Amino acid sequence: MSEATSPAPTPRILVVDDEPDLREIYALTLIREGWEVAEAAGVAEARALLEQSGFDVAIVDMRLRDGEGMELLAWLAAQRRSERVIMATAYGNAATAVQALKTGAFDYLTKPVDLRQLRLVVRSALSLGLAAAVAQTRPAPALQALVGDSAPMRAVKDTLRRAARGMAPVLIQGESGTGKELAARALHELSNRCAGPFVPVNCSAIPEHLLEAEFFGYRKGAFTGAVNSHDGFFAAAAGGTLFLDEIGELPMAMQAKLLRAVQERRVRAIGETAEAPVDVRLVSATHRDLARCVAEGSFRQDLYYRLNVIDVTLPALRERLDDLPQLADALLARIRRDQERPALRLGAQALAALGRHDFQGNVRELENMLQRAAALAASDTIGADDLGAPAGAAADRAPTPAAERAQLGPQLSPELPLDLPAYLDQVERAILLDALRRTRFNRTAAAQLLGLNLRQMRYRIERLGIRDDDAR
Ligand SMILES: Nc1ncnc2c1ncn2[C@@H]1O[C@H](COP(=O)(O)OP(=O)(O)OP(=O)(O)O)[C@@H](O)[C@H]1O
Ligand SMILES: [Mg+2]
């Protein structure tokens, strides 16, 4: 980093539009902010300038005399250029805005361009340079809270890192307890908005008649009971991230209002005459299959399309059993701190029992189970017995047959001294048998449950001398 006394370099912005009047208005607005501006009238001219030198931000119109703005965007993306591209799209053209974001645009503006919005978006793009510089000197700590190195978790983390570079709306899907909120927080902390607020909103927890007031705010006297003015979620999240949790529960009438806010990028508080530009990054989450809600008519297709520009699907715990030891470790560390029991640990039998449990409630259920077991354990070592029945997280679901299975498993007693290799073989055998039973001896499916490929599965089955009738 440069020393505090040396001035930061002046941000350089390239404006690409074939209308001279528009270029001039943009340029004047940006120069007034103290930024340096270069202008190009078309694709060829822009490329010539870009080949000569780099810019921090490029504002690119969709339709240019000699080609499409999207070509220029694709070219910059293919060259892995560092310019953050802001596309100017026609009002109401959701398809081009979404396509631009998917192609790697940092953000988009709708025409006619609101100059306040222009300043906000460019400012936001410029602070990204700063965040990127900081991020280079420090590995992303935000992702460390999201424990797991299995292939599906690595894919999730890659997508979050990529999504953090721009403003594209992100939809996080996954079963209950898979870590959707954690992922949303990680995304915020990875982004250039990390210094701004993270505002989580549980859409299912707000009474329907209050939704509009809560989302957009209201002015004093706007309705009976509005004794003071009140900021809505959009205002509260300005400069940061608005996290719309359980978005699938939003009633239709509110979906229409949210769509308008997303489209126009402006909101108006109840009782207010002026609209305010929106300066939030939208992240939504749902445990529902939102595409199906759209098909069934309970969720608006156009809103789904706008919110789901980047999609992150968190794997169920059963799809990433590889991560179980690491997860148990991390959750136990938290419990050790919370319960002030520094010596608390998980016995080998207990870990093996967890491997056999059917986690309908995913990581949250694992966390609840460990918390409960820690409280029940007579000593500082949690045993398989302490894990007992599934924790209450899944009260609304059919009881899982965990306890039953735990009894079917071999009685393991790791008393020291102990023949460790033989003991581990016994544990491995129990886990393999359990997976085979669950999949009705389908080796491919059983291998998948355990994060193995078929060859590894066959090798282990052979090594441990497991026969099909062992599993019956
Ligand atoms: N990958 C993970 N690493 C560590 N802890 C996790 C992970 N995923 C989830 N957790 C923990 O599990 C609990 C549930 O996570 P979270 O609230 O993010 O789930 P969710 O997907 O939002 O669930 P729901 O749909 O029920 O709201 C939290 O305590 C969280 O810290
Ligand atoms: Mg949640």
The gist of it:
By secondary structure, the protein is α/β, with parallel strands linked by helices. The chain has helices spanning 20-32, 43-52, 69-78, 94-103, 115-137, 151-163, 180-190, 211-216, 233-236, 252-264, 290-296, 301-307, 324-338, 348-356, 362-376, 384-387, 402-408, 420-438, 443-449, 454-463; strands at 12-16, 36-40, 57-61, 63-64, 67-68, 84-90, 107-111, 170-173, 198-202, 217-218, 230-231, 241-245, 266-267, 276-277, 281-286, 310-313, 345-346, 381-382. It is built from 20 helices and 18 strands.
List keywords for this structure.
single chain; about 475 residues; alpha/beta; Rossmann fold; Helicase, Ruva Protein, domain 3; 4 domains; five-stranded parallel beta sheet; about 45% helix; binds adenosine-5'-triphosphate; binds magnesium ion
